[in-house]
Amino acid sequence: MSQIITPAQLQQWLFDGQEIALFDVREHGQYGDAHLFHGVTLPYSRLELDIRRLAPNPNVRLVIYDQTGSDVAPRAALRLVASGYCNVHLLEGGVQGWQASGRQLFAGVHVPSKAFGELVEQVSHTPHVTAIELAQWQASGEPLVVLDGRPFDEYRKMTIPGSVCCPNGELGYRIPELVSDESTPIVVNCAGRTRSIIGAQTLIDMGVKNPVYALENGTQGWYLADLQLEHGSVRHYPVSAALPRRWQNGLRYTP
């Protein structure tokens, strides 16, 4: 059976150091318009499909919310309890109740990670290049390595011409295979800016001697600068038998 939790109680839970799962059960469009900072989108239409992946612990403190607290959240709570979750709570008043209590809402998606990226750039002063600067650099023919820090699926959809797919989580392992000369500049890109910043700053913090830059605004900035994106690319870091392999022959697989 589910219980009601007030905005004040939820605020306390979010910072008490205990495990908690906070889900927004409205549809994606509503979530993007305004949501709680720590809320994760879990649309009611995909509840059973995604809940086990997002909350594998059936005993977790699980808080769900909708627009008013009486829309789809009560129905979602019943389905969660029926699915084996034993600690389900509904946010009193939903999004409207949270805002009415004087607490802030946020627009967009991936807000915590984006905020973290901006903080990293502000604190570390991560070097960056614009799309126009990168295009001119490529046209000059000077040595340069462009690494796309996104997963291969995203990379194949669109990327910077000539870039190589190397997800940020692999950068530390693969740099010696991808860049043999310590004087060659490295530019890390993503779709926007967050993963570009994190990837570039990771290499810098690891002590990579190469000049390292984040591509300002990623593939979006490249497109808005009226530059041509590349689609269907299959370039990726060299497969090494000594390291875990994620892709081979342009296809994702699990070893």
TrEMBL record:
Query: Cross-referenced Pfam families, in alphabetical order?
Result: Rhodanese (PF00581)
Q: Does the keyword Ion transport apply?
A: no
UniProt xrefs under SUPFAM superfamilies: Rhodanese/Cell cycle control phosphatase
Record's keyword annotation contains Lyase: yes
Transmembrane spans = none
Coiled coil regions, renumbered to chain:
none
Protein name according to UniProt: Rhodanese domain-containing protein/cystathionine beta-lyase
